Amino acid sequence: MSLLRVSNLSVVFTGRGRPPLVALDDVSLTVAAGETLALVGESGSGKSTLALAIAGLLDTAASVRGQIDVAGHGIVGAAPTALQHLRRGGIAMVFQDPMSALNPVHRIGDQIAETMPGSRAERRAAASRLLHVVGLPDAERLLEAWPHELSGGMRQRVALAIALGQEPRLLIADEPTTALDVTIQAQILRLLADLQRDLGLTLLLVTHDLGVVAELADRVAVLYAGRLVEVAAVDALFSTPQHPYTQGLLAARPPFGPDAPMLPRLTEIPGGLPSLSPPPPGCRFAERCARVSQRCREDMPELRASSAGLVACHHPGATP
Amino acid sequence: MAGSPGTGSRGLGSFLAAAWPVIRRRLLLALPVLLLVACGTFGLLHLAPGDAVDAMVIAGGGGDAALASELRARYGLDQPLLVQLSLYLLRLLQFDFGVSPVHNRPVLALITERLPISLLLMLTATAFAVSLGVVLGVSAAAAAGRWRDRLILAAALVIYAMPSFWVGLMLILVFAVTLGWLPVGGFETAASGLSGMARVLDIARHLILPTLALALLFVSVHLRLMRAGMLDLAGADFVRMARAKGVPRRRVLWAHLARNAVLPVIAMVGVQASTLLGGAVVIESVFSLPGLGRLAYDSVVARDLATLMGLVVVSAVIVLTVTLVVDLVMAALDPRVRLR
Q1: Numbered residues of chain A with Cβ closer than 8 Å to any chain B Cβ
Q2: To bridge B5 with a disulfide, which of A23, A145, B69, B213 should be the other Cys (CB 3.0-4.6 Å)?
Q3: What is the pTM for the complete model shown?
C-alpha cells in the first residue's frame, strides 16, 4: 500500500515583474510504506521543491496544482490546521544545512520538545531519549546546549531527533549529508538506514549524490528540469539505465576500484538546464541529448513502462 | 566551539554573576574615556568668548570692572587655563563638580535633582519606541508587499521626515490645547499635594506626550530594522524546521522569527544612546520639563561653564552606561554573543 501518492503535480513560482517559473511539471509518483525512494537530480531540477511541496512547506509565492496524498490526507490546498495534524504522526523533514536548521537562540532541549505533547518533565525525558536514539550520548548536558556549541554532524543528529520526535510515518530528508564532512556523511547515512529499518519509516531521500542512492535507496526517481524522466528499482537503474540523462549521470561518476586510473577523465553531459520560464515544448533534455530527433523537440515524452521501470523518452534503451 | 556545550545555566542571577568581571572591567575602562571627555569639553568651552561673569555683568546692564575681577577671583576664573583644568580634573576625581556661579549652588546637586526626569523620559521613550517598532515591523513583514506593509512603511517615512520638536508642538496643539486631554507641559501638577499612586499617575499623564514625541524619532528606524530582519530570516532553514515540526504560525512569527530579528534592534538602541540624550534635551525644552536638557540650555545662555562641564561629563556617563546595559541585554538575548 502506498503511503505517499503524488499525482500530476505542477508547481509554478510567480513573482512580480518576472515570468512565471515552472519548477515542477506533471509529476506523479508513489512511495510504498516502509520504502526508501531516492529523488535524484542536479541543482535546479526541482527536487527540493517537490520535497517541500510534499511536506506542505511551499511558501505562498508558489501556485500548486495536482494532488499529494500522505496516508490518505490531501496536502495540496489543505487548511493550515489540517496540515498541523499531519506534523505529528505524519510527515517530518530534515534539511540540508544543519548550521541553519536550528534556531540559534533556543536551547537544544527546547527545540526538540517544542511541539511534543505532555508535561514539561515528560517532554524533557522524551527529548533526552531521542538524543540517545540519534547517537548523541550525554543527553542531559546537550539538552541545555545552544546550537552554536555543536558541530555540524551533531546538529544534523539533533535535527533528526526533532524530526523523530514527531513520530512520523514519512521522513523527508533533503540532501541530509551534502553540507557535512565525508566521514560524518557516512555516519549520518548509517544512522538514517538504521532508523528507517528499526522504526519502519518511509523515507524520501532527496540527493544529487549517487553514492548515497546506491547505499540507501530501494527505488530511484530521476528528476530533470521539473519532470520525472525515469523511475526504477535501484539495481535496475544502475545496471540498465533507460533514459539518456540517467545514463549521462551514471557515466559522470568518477570510476572506482582497483583498475581505475589515478586521475580519470570525467565524462560530462554537455550543455545546461533549459530555461523553465517558459519551458521548451518538447523533451526538456533534447538540447543536450545525443539521440535527439525532430519528434523530441516537438512532442513531450510521457512516463511509460520500460523493461526496468518507468521512462519518459522517445528513444529509450541501453547506451548505444 | 564544541568544547563544553550546555555550560550556560538559566536565570538572571547566574547571568549577572558570569557578567560581573566584564562589568567591572568596562567601568574601569570608562574612567580614561571620561577624563578625555572632560579635557576636550573644557578646551572647547573655553574657545568660546565670554564667561559667567561677563554674562552676569551684561544681565545686570553693565557694571563695575572691579566687581567683575573680584567675582572672577572668587570662582577661580582668573587663573591660567591649564591650572583651571588641572584643578577641575582633581575635583572631578572626588565627585566634586564645582559650584555654579549662576545658581550659586553645587553643580552636582543641580544635576542630580534633574537627572531622574531625563532618565525617566529616555527610558519610557526607548521602551515605547522599541515595542512599537517591533510590533509594527513584525506586522509589516507578515504582510510584506501587501497594503498593510505599504501603509506602515509610508507612515514610517512620514514620521521619520518630521523634526521631533515640531512633532512635540503639534502634539501639544492637538492633545493639550485643542482636545484638552493631556497637560501642556511640566513634569507634574504644581502644588497639587498628590502622593503615592495618584502622584505616579499624574506624572505618567505629563509624560505621555513627551514620550511620544521623543519615541517617534526612533520608531521608524526600529521598525525598518525589524522588518528587514524578519524578511531576511523568513527563508532560513530554522523557520522551515519550526513549521515542519508543527509550530503554530503565530509562534513561528514571534518565538522563532521575531526573537532573532529583534537582536539588531537592541544593538541599535546602544548605537543611538547619544542621539536619544540629544533628543531628550530638545523635547524637554518643548514640554518645559525640568530635566537636564533645560539645565543645559539655561547654562549655555548664562555662560555657566561649570554646570555645562558637569552636564557633559554626566552625559558621557549616561551614554557609557546605556552602552554597557545594551551589551548586557544583547548577551542575555543572544547565546552567540560573548561579553568581553
Answers
A1: 16, 52, 55, 57, 80, 84, 87-88, 91-93, 95-97, 100-106, 108, 114-115, 141-146, 148-151, 154, 159, 162-163, 165-166
A2: A145
A3: 0.85
